[in-house]
Specification:
Structural class: mainly alpha
């Protein structure tokens, strides 16, 4: 029973961390979009890539990331 509790605790902690990472990435993305909206598409792409990899660090990527730019 002790092992089951440890596994459950690990799963709960993992779920909390994943939710926190998604929230942090959304906030980072929102702030980044606001800060680069007046730049050219090429510069926006470079800044997104640079900031994403800086944010991701050495962590494995576990979800897909899709960013679409629309020029009006």
């Amino acid at each position: 029973m002790g092992k089951d509790k440890s596994i459950e605790e690990f799963q709960e902690e993992n779920a909390r961390l994943k939710a926190n990472l998604k929230t942090a990435f959304r906030e980072l993305g929102r702030k980044l979009i606001e800060s680069i909206q007046d730049l050219s598409m090429g510069v926006q792409k470079e800044k997104f890539e640079r900031d994403f990899y800086r944010w991701k660090g050495d962590c494995d990527q576990v979800d897909d990331v899709l960013i679409i730019g629309v020029r009006v």
